[in-house]
Amino acid sequence: MKKAILEARQEVSKQEILNVAKRLFAERGVRATSLARIAEAVGVTKAALYHYFSSKHEIVLEAVRANIRDFDEDVLEPSEGLSASELLVERLERKVARAERDGPLDLRFFYTVLLEEIGEPDIETVIREFWAAGRRELAEFVRGGQRSGEFRDDVDLDSVLDVLSGAIMGIDILWLNDAEQVDLRRAYGMALEQTLAILAPGARR
Q1: Alpha helices in 12-156 (DSSP H)
Q2: What's the pLDDT score for residue 5?
Q3: Angle at Cα 162 formed by Cα 99 and Cα 146, nearest 5°?
Q4: Which domains does the chain have, with CATH numbers?
Q5: Cα distances (Å, whole numbers) of residue 172 to 65, 74, 82, 156, 203
Q6: What's the mean per-residue pLDDT of the chain?
Q7: Chain-centre distance of CA 4, in angstroms?
Q8: Average pLDDT over residues 146-155
Q9: What global pTM score does this model have?
């Protein structure tokens, strides 16, 4: 066992394990993917995995955290000099670019964990914090638009955020079900267009 662990240190990295595990979780589901299956796919012994992770649960948690960090870097990097509506458009453009780059695997992994691991306190906490951070950022965009006069100031902010977030999640699920038939760029764009129409100063109150 000690020899296998020493060999594994030279042949495999923690990130490689996470990448393989993420793919397997997306393809097979979290519950149906064992540590032995992850080790086999990585090309090391199951014992070698324990050099990096104490359990499958720890792999799932670390994979979720890594996925969120990557999303933040790809989608949420700050931009300067854009209006509130331009910032919203840019965020969705970046989300589309990430989906086009990674294909359905990335989203399928996130939603698989969301559904299968609900009830796991630490994983739920990480995902809830991620959603809360995204919601706070959207809210700040809207408030910035209200301060500048770009958006109406009497809008029910929570309702607007619920509608936009729900639309995006629904589009994600439709795309995962049939990526060939759903044009993400067009669908996200329509959801944002409808949201901006609600926020426009001349919108019906």
Answers
A1: 14-28, 35-42, 46-49, 56-75, 84-102, 104-116, 121-148
A2: 47
A3: 100
A4: 1-54 (1.10.10.60), 61-199 (1.10.357.10)
A5: 20, 17, 26, 25, 28
A6: 88
A7: 34
A8: 91
A9: 0.83
